[in-house]
Design goal:
Blueprint: H1 3-15, E1 51-56, H2 57-63, H3 68-72, E2 78-79, E3 85-86, E4 89-90, E5 103-107, E6 110-111, E7 127-134, H4 138-141, E8 148-154, E9 162-170, E10 174-186, E11 190-201, E12 206-207, E13 218-229, E14 236-250, E15 253-255, E16 265-266, E17 273-289, E18 292-310, E19 320-342, E20 345-369, H5 370-376, H6 383-386, E21 393-417, E22 420-443, H7 446-457, E23 465-485, E24 490-501, E25 504-508, E26 512-516, E27 519-532, E28 536-553, E29 564-582, E30 587-605, E31 608-609, E32 621-629, E33 634-643, E34 646-647, E35 655-656, E36 659-669, E37 675-681, E38 689-695, E39 701-705, E40 710-718
Parallel strand pairs: 5-8, 12-16
Antiparallel strand pairs: 1-7, 2-3, 3-4, 5-6, 7-8, 9-10, 9-40, 10-11, 11-13, 13-14, 14-17, 15-39, 17-18, 18-19, 19-20, 20-21, 21-22, 22-23, 23-24, 24-27, 25-26, 27-28, 28-29, 29-30, 30-31, 30-32, 32-33, 33-36, 34-35, 36-37, 37-40, 38-39
Length: about 725
């Protein structure tokens, strides 16, 4: 898709603009009743004891936010530094171990896999709502949701026609152009909607070795189409969603030893970039049957990721790495929601079945000096002794095909007796993984081939070949809760539930194949939710997480090898507090506070005893506050977010400082509906590190910094 095509579409719409007031929008002065998309029992935000952060379409637009990262960083105990983290638990886990993820990322009912989970490249154009469910969603969502879930719901087609368009340009050679619209194709029978967005960001970094500006530039686009069919009115609905998202990103690492990190200078002598393409399909069918509401949800996700980069990220000729990964995931869920009475008291529940099949293929290549391989295997008596091998290289190709099959039965119910509501839930999850792993090793010189042959002969590395490994795990995931209505406006709750991340199979190129079991958490939540005077909604949660059978990587060098075992345990404690409401008829405010403390109780690694250490990439606190002021046709929005510092890894040696970011938007809407705006992020141009002390060559390291100031000006309108 060419940028000029999107610009022409936007410009044509703007030139012919005829304003119409958007109907059906929730007035900002009225507290919206929100049914949580990520809750299969269809609770409202106020009726749920879960800790939830929510932003709706209006709030996202008023804040001038472009992607999921910008939205969720305003929520309590949601970190967005090196990667998404909830309650101090990073997406890849506290040690980056295991094949599964700790957070489920879902868009329009389709669980995102692989690098489609990159929240900085998940746009929010035409999004209806973004939700973060903090705490385990294992009973509700199953695998890969031990820390929580991120749920994105985009706008569905309606019979009423509408059309939106927006175009903006800013510093760092950035632009965004987007259109969205839809309406009835056949009144009361069929409706459609499409949305398209394209963007570019020129980046902040300069590569001095290659003399390349915009070393970390980003480009991408997203296209989505929806079709809603209601041939028998409200008795049946089918919603089909098709989407494609592509992005390309340069490398974000910069030199931090021979150069000042704040200079944002990269020294890699090899080209570095990643490309990702994801295509999703979802078919959701809903109808009533026998007094229950039936939902049939079919999802399909196809993700393809490729990368090419400098292995050491320096000006030295120390090798390259390439990678390709394909994921195909098919899911099918059938569930029934019901509401009835039992012994004269209200009972509502959900029961369902789930099936998922995920296939993946990986092709990773490493071209590294013999000296590096000897050092990583602990075979270098000194740096000087191995320096003679710096000009000899080994090329290692790691091939893998995997298949994961997941089956589940689940149910959850609320039973209300007077002011008390009892909750019980249970999920049975069965998962089988198989992996076929192969390696191909060659040397660029007779010396390299001889050294590698000796390492294999000594049993330090496994010989090339193809190996099959598999695992089969079955788990029960119970949930119990109690909620007490203090009065008409306030309720307190307590919940205990079991969370898990699935086990798997791995292959260490030094130790060979191995299987590891699931890891589990026992989670305890206390909640208090209610309405303060002035229609302010407040939600507070206090939690403790006890983590057992933790999956940890005990490989001596985690860059080129992984050996995952269940050998850790830990504890986390914290709280979340969020409040929002109308200060006056024109001013809406919000605030959020999150505190999190993590500690390994037991974690023995070949590199040291990390017991008592904090998790890496786990901020201790998050805070945010902001307001939207709308006098007449004008808008002023400002929001301040703070994320505390965190250690780079479990060794707790390098600590990244915290960051405070100011963002906002100002806009004016003319009588014909056309609006002009200016928006920005990191307006104070704060310099901060998201990933620190990334080892490159002995005595040197790189860091990754957050984006600098971004300011954009644009026009937007809707029919």
């Amino acid at each position: 898709m060419q940028f000029k095509h999107v610009v022409l579409a936007v410009s044509g719409a703007v030139c012919a603009w005829q304003a119409q007031a958007e109907q059906g929008a929730q007035p900002p002065g009225v507290e919206e009743v929100v049914v949580i998309s990520g809750d299969k029992l269809k609770r409202t935000e106020a009726d749920s004891s879960a800790s939830i952060g929510i932003r709706n379409r209006r709030q996202i637009a008023e804040a001038g936010q472009n992607n999921i990262e910008e939205v969720v960083r305003q929520m309590a105990n949601v970190g967005t530094g090196a990667e998404l983290a909830i309650r101090g638990i990073p997406l890849a886990g506290p040690t980056g171990s295991g094949s599964g993820r700790t957070i489920s990322v879902t868009s329009d009912g389709v669980q995102q896999s692989g690098f489609a989970q990159d929240i900085s490249n998940l746009p929010v154009w035409d999004a209806e709502r973004v939700e973060v469910l903090r705490g385990p969603q294992s009973t509700n969502q199953g695998r890969n949701s031990l820390a929580g879930a991120l749920v994105v719901k985009t706008r569905d087609p309606q019979d009423q026609r509408d059309f939106n368009a927006r175009i903006s340009a800013g510093n760092k050679r950035s632009y965004r152009a987007a259109v969205a619209g839809g309406g009835a194709l056949a009144e009361q029978v069929a409706a459609g909607r499409i949305s398209i967005e394209q963007y570019r960001d020129g980046g902040d970094n300069f590569n001095a070795t290659r003399n390349e500006k915009h070393w970390d530039k980003e480009t991408g686009h997203t296209a989505r189409g929806k079709l809603r069919l209601t041939p028998w009115g409200e008795r049946y609905q089918a919603l089909l969603t098709l989407s494609e998202s592509k992005y390309r990103k340069g490398d974000a690492q910069v030199e931090a030893v021979t150069r000042q990190a704040r200079e944002r200078i990269a020294l890699a002598n090899e080209a570095s970039a990643i490309d990702n393409r994801s295509r999703n399909m979802a078919l959701e069918q809903t109808f009533a049957l026998g007094g229950a509401d039936i939902t049939l949800l079919t999802g399909y996700a196809h993700n393809r990721y490729t990368r090419a980069s400098d292995y050491d990220y320096t000006e030295l000729n120390q090798g390259t790495q390439t990678g390709m990964r394909k994921n195909r995931e098919l899911t099918q869920e059938a569930r029934a929601n019901f509401a009835t009475t039992l012994a004269g008291n209200a009972l509502k529940g959900v029961a369902g079945v789930y099936y998922g099949r995920d296939t993946a293929s990986t092709d990773d290549g490493f071209r590294v000096p013999v000296s590096f391989v000897l050092n990583s295997a602990g075979q270098c008596p000194s740096a000087a002794a191995c320096a003679v091998f710096d000009s000899d290289f080994i090329h290692r190709r790691n091939l893998e095909n995997s298949r994961t099959r997941n089956r589940a039965l689940f149910g959850e119910a609320d039973y209300s007796v007077g002011a008390l509501t009892y909750t019980a839930g249970l999920r049975y999850d069965a998962e089988k993984q198989t992996r076929v792993v192969g390696t191909e090793t060659t040397g660029t010189s007779p010396m390299a081939q001889m050294v590698m042959g000796q390492l294999i002969g000594a049993g330090i590395f496994n010989a090339d070949g193809v190996r099959d490994v598999s695992s089969d795990n079955k788990v029960w995931l119970p949930k119990l809760g109690l909620r007490y209505a203090l009065n008409g406006d306030w309720a307190a709750g307590a919940t205990a539930q079991r969370g898990y991340r699935s086990g798997g199979v791995g292959y260490s190129y030094q130790r060979g194949p191995n299987a590891y079991a699931p890891e589990f958490t026992k989670n305890y939540d206390l909640s208090l939710k209610g309405t303060l005077p002035g229609n302010f909604f407040l939600a507070a949660n206090l939690y403790q997480i006890d983590w057992s059978k933790q999956q940890v990587n005990i490989s001596r060098n985690t860059t080129i090898d992984n050996f995952v075992v269940n050998a850790g345990s830990s504890r986390l404690r914290g709280l979340e507090l969020e409040v929002r409401g109308m200060l006056t008829r024109e001013v809406e405010v919000f605030g959020a506070l999150g505190l999190s403390r993590s500690r390994f109780i037991e974690f023995q690694s070949p590199l040291g005893d990390y017991s008592g250490h904090e998790f890496g990439r786990s901020p201790r606190q998050t805070q945010s506050a902001g307001f939207s002021w709308k006098p007449g046709r004008a808008l002023l929005n400002l929001h301040l977010t703070h994320e505390g510092g965190s250690y780079s890894g479990a060794e707790n040696e390098e600590r990244n400082g915290g960051r405070t970011l100011l963002g906002g938007k100002t806009a004016y809407t003319f009588a014909n509906g056309l609006s002009v705006f200016a928006q920005g992020s990191n307006l104070l141009n704060h310099t901060y590190i998201t990933s620190g002390a990334i080892s490159t060559v002995p005595g040197r390291h790189n860091v990754v910094q957050g984006k600098g100031r971004r300011i954009a000006f644009g026009i937007e309108g809707r029919i």
